[in-house]
Amino acid sequence: MTAFLDSSAIVKRYADEPESHLVQAVSEPVFASDLAAVEVPAALWRKHRVDEISASEAQTLCQRFLADVSVSSLNRNTVLMRVSEDILHEAIGLVARHPLRAYDAVQLASALAASRLMGGCTFGCFDRQLSTAAAIEGLPLLW
Fold first, then answer.
1. Spatial CB neighbours of 49, under 8 Å, sequence gap ≥ 6
2. Burial of 48 (0-12, 13-18, 19+ CB in 10 A)
3. Is the pTM of this model over 0.70?
4. Which of 23, 124, 131, 133 sees the fewest Cβ atoms within 10 Å?
């Protein structure tokens, strides 16, 4: 079954973190929100700013990620879901039903759209509130 990963999970595909092995085991390609195009590099550069990785490593990891999501890449392993008006409207409903931050609601609405598009998908993230909301919304969790 297709998997949808939020940005916290995608970062673990590139940076060595606790539980990275869980994400490494997920089959490719995976779906993600367009938000990941900014959130993943932001997280990788944050790792540099707190001295977890060097600047050159942050730059290399960002380049690998951006190549992996590039529409022109023959080896694209992450498909970004466009944040459409429909996804934003669904996110508005999600924040009314669940205690989610705005971008987490957009992530979940994107996952629900991917699930509809693919006839189902599993959901992977490392945020308890977001995972709980995803399960309540009917998405099977990866871990």
1. none
2. middle
3. yes
4. 131
